[in-house]
């Protein structure tokens, strides 16, 4: 799953407008992938290109215990939540940020072939919807659009920023699905992934800075 990971970010930002803004939740949504590709660059975690890995995605993610095991994701979630709670002086905002990080494992479990572990080791989990594009593609589009609509309904502001974010999200998703896949996993693949996360997060920061949330009594207030 790619842009579907950002659905919890939109929901969290809209559900608690006094907390962190959308950009922070975008970091939370892909935090473990940020970490995975950074660690892959230095050879700590590993992936390879295998056309038979799944129908949709030829990535064999065969070693990622420090970012994508359930225990590791929980540790990343708690750590990030504490940082956000302290930074924003907002315990509930930190709790929501932690939940967004934790959502990554569940969403990956839906789409990945069995490559997710509980705490490392050989036993792996994954429902494997990447082998069923007729299910995986509508699911990813559906949850992302539903979350975006919820965010936009709960907030007010210029249309241009969210429209551009939506456009870039679905452009990147189309590239992810339909562009030719790389022949091998290398530094360029890792760097491109990190760049994509960075671009999307930058757009999310821009959107979050320009959205206002309807408060009790019909007044609009900026998220904090």
Write the layout of secondary structure elements.
Elements: H1 7-15, H2 22-29, H3 31-41, E1 46-49, E2 59-63, H4 70-88, H5 91-111, H6 133-154, E3 155-156, H7 160-178, H8 187-209, E4 212-214, E5 220-222
Antiparallel strand pairs: 1-2, 3-4, 4-5
Helix pairs in contact: 1-2, 1-6, 2-5, 2-8, 3-8, 4-5, 7-8
Please, could you describe this protein's structure?
This protein is mainly α and 224 residues long. Helices cover 59% and strands 8% of the residues. Residues 216-224 have low confidence and may be disordered.
Q: Please count the beta strands (DSSP E, at least 2 residues each).
A: 5
SSE pattern, N- to C-terminal: HHHEEHHHEHHEE
* Major beta-sheet overview: 3 strands, antiparallel
Radius of gyration: 17 Å
Structural class: mainly alpha
Helix coverage percent: 55-70%
Unreliable stretches (pLDDT < 50, length at least 5) are 216-224
The number of helical runs is 8
Shape: globular
Beta-strand residue percentage? 5-15%
Distance separating the two termini: 29 Å
Mean pLDDT: 94
Q: Identify the strand order in the major beta sheet.
A: 3-4-5
């Amino acid at each position: 799953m790619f842009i579907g990971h950002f659905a919890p970010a939109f929901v969290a930002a809209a559900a608690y407008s006094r907390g962190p803004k959308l950009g922070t939740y975008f970091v939370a949504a892909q935090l473990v992938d940020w970490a995975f590709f950074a660690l892959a660059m230095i050879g700590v975690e590993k992936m390879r290109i295998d056309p038979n890995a799944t129908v949709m995605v030829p990535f064999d993610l065969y070693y990622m215990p420090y970012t994508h095991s359930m225990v590791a994701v929980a540790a990343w979630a708690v750590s990030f939540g504490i940082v956000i709670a302290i930074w924003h002086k907002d315990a509930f905002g930190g709790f929501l940020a932690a939940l967004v990080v934790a959502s990554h494992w569940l969403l990956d479990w839906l789409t990945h072939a069995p490559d997710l572990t509980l705490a490392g080791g050989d036993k792996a989990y994954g429902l494997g919807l990447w082998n069923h594009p007729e299910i995986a593609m509508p699911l990813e589009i559906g949850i992302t659009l539903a979350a975006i609509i919820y965010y936009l309904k709960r907030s007010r502001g210029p249309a241009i920023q969210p429209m551009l974010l939506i456009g870039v999200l679905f452009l990147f998703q189309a590239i992810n699905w339909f562009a030719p896949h790389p022949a091998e996993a290398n530094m360029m693949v890792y760097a491109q992934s990190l760049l994509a996360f960075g671009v999307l997060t930058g757009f999310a920061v821009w959107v979050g800075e320009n959205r206002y949330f309807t408060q009790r009594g019909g007044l609009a207030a900026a998220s904090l």
